[in-house]
C-alpha cells in the first residue's frame, strides 16, 4: 500500500502486469496492488480452470442422461422398423431395469406379430393349393354342360375364382426363397403394348405415349405382367367409358426407370392412399366384387415390384384421376 494523495482522484488499471485499484479519502490516496493470482499472464489459465470446473458437472450430467435414454432410443428405432414392415428387427436389452423389461416386451410383441402374419400367409397358401383341384374339376365338368348361356356364365365365375387363387398363390410364393423373380431382358415398349392389347380393350381404352423404343428392363415377365395388368385394369375400371384413355409412358432416370399409368377417373380420397396396398382393402366397400374387386390388386402389385427391388408411387385427386408409377432401380435395367 502506498500513499499517492497528490493525484487527487480515484484510479484503476494495471502496473507491472498486476491489477491495482486506487481510491482517496481524508487520509490520502491509497493504491492496492493485485494479488499475483490476478497476474495478467495467468488470467486466461485461471478463467479456463474456473470454466472447466463449472462445466464438468454439466458434461457428466449430459452423458448420464444419454446413457439413461439409450434404451428409449433403441425402442424408438424398433417402432420405426416395425412400422416400415421389418418384423424381424429386435431391440437389444442393455439393462435389467424397467426399460430392459420394456425392450423384452417389445421383442415378444414383434415375435407374436411376425408369427401371426406368417401363419396367415401359410393358411392362404394351403387353402389356395387345395382350391386348385376342385376348380380344375369344375372347369372340366362345365365342358359337358349343354346350356351354352349357362355354361359361359359359370365359366366366367370359375375363371374369376381361378384368377384370384392364382393371385393368392403368387403373393404367398413371393414370401418364400423359391418365389424370387426370374429376371430376363425385356423390351419395355413392346411389353407395354402387349399389356394394352390384352387388358386395355374395354372403354375408355389405353394408349402408350411415344418414348425411346430401345429401353430394356430385367424383370420376371410373368410377375411383371400381373403387376401391370392389375394397375391397368384398375385404371379402366374406375374411369368413365367416355373419359380420355388411360395413358402409359416410361422415363429413364439416372438410377431408375419409371413406368407410369394415368387415368381420368373418379380418383381416390387422400385418407385411403396409404391403405390401398393392404391386402383385401377396398376403398368403397359398398361396391360389389365385379366393380371393386377383392382388394388384392394393388397389394399384389406392391409385392411384385418390391420383389424387383422397386417401389410403387401413387398420386390421386377425387374427380380428376389417379397416377400410379412403378419405379425399377437402374441396376435392373439397361438401354
From the coordinates shown, what is the CATH architecture of the largest domain? 2-Layer Sandwich
Number of continuous helical runs:
8
Radius of gyration: 37 Å
Uncertain segments of ≥5 residues (pLDDT<50)?
1-15, 29-38, 286-290
* Residues in helices, as a percent range: 40-55%
In short:
By secondary structure, the protein is α+β, with helices and mostly antiparallel strands. Helix content is 48%, strand content 19%.
Structural features, described:
The protein is α+β, with helices and mostly antiparallel strands and 335 residues long. It folds into three domains: 2-38, no CATH class; 99-177, Helix Hairpins, CATH 1.10.287.130; 182-334, Heat Shock Protein 90 (2-Layer Sandwich), CATH 3.30.565.10. It is built from eight helices and twelve strands. It has a five-stranded mixed β-sheet with strand order 6-8-9-11-10, with helices on one face. The chain has a four-stranded antiparallel β-sheet with strand order 1-4-3-2, with no helix packed on it. The chain has a three-stranded antiparallel β-sheet with strand order 5-7-12. The longest helix has 45 residues, at 98-142. 17% of the residues are buried. Mean pLDDT is 77; it is low at 1-15, 29-38 and 286-290.
Amino acid at each position: 500500500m502506498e500513499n499517492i494523495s497528490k493525484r487527487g482522484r480515484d484510479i484503476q488499471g494495471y502496473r507491472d502486469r498486476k491489477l491495482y485499484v486506487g481510491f482517496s479519502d481524508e487520509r490520502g490516496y491509497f493504491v492496492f496492488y493485485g494479488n499475483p493470482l490476478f497476474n495478467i499472464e495467468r488470467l486466461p489459465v485461471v478463467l479456463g480452470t474456473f470454466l472447466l470446473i463449472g462445466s464438468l458437472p454439466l458434461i457428466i450430467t449430459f452423458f448420464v442422461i444419454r446413457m439413461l435414454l439409450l434404451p428409449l432410443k433403441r425402442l424408438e428405432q424398433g417402432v420405426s422398423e416395425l412400422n416400415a414392415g421389418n418384423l424381424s428387427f429386435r431391440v437389444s436389452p442393455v439393462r435389467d431395469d424397467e426399460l430392459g423389461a420394456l425392450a423384452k416386451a417389445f421383442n415378444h410383441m414383434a415375435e407374436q406379430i411376425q408369427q401371426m402374419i406368417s401363419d396367415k400367409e401359410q393358411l392362404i397358401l394351403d387353402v389356395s393349393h387345395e382350391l386348385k383341384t376342385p376348380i380344375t374339376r369344375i372347369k372340366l365338368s362345365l365342358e359337358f354342360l349343354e346350356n351354352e348361356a349357362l355354361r359361359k356364365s359359370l365359366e366366367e365365375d370359375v375363371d374369376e375364382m381361378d384368377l384370384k387363387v392364382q393371385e393368392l398363390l403368387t403373393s404367398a410364393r413371393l414370401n418364400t426363397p423359391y418365389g424370387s423373380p426370374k429376371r430376363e431382358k425385356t423390351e419395355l415398349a413392346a411389353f407395354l403394348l402387349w399389356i394394352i392389347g390384352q387388358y386395355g380393350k374395354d372403354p375408355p381404352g389405353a394408349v402408350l405415349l411415344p418414348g425411346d423404343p430401345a429401353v430394356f428392363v430385367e424383370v420376371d415377365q410373368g410377375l411383371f405382367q400381373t403387376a401391370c395388368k392389375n394397375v391397368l385394369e384398375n385404371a379402366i375400371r374406375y374411369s368413365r367409358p367416355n373419359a380420355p384413355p388411360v395413358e402409359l409412358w416410361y422415363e429413364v432416370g439416372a438410377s431408375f426407370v419409371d413406368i407410369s399409368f394415368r387415368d381420368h377417373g373418379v380418383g381416390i380420397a387422400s385418407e385411403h392412399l396409404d391403405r390401398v396396398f393392404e391386402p383385401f382393402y377396398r376403398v368403397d366397400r359398398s361396391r360389389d366384387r365385379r366393380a371393386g374387386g377383392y382388394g388384392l390388386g394393388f397389394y399384389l402389385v406392391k409385392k411384385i415390384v418390391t420383389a424387383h427391388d422397386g417401389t410403387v408411387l401413387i398420386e390421386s385427386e377425387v374427380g380428376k384421376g389417379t397416377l400410379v408409377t412403378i419405379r425399377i432401380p437402374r441396376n435392373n435395367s439397361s438401354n
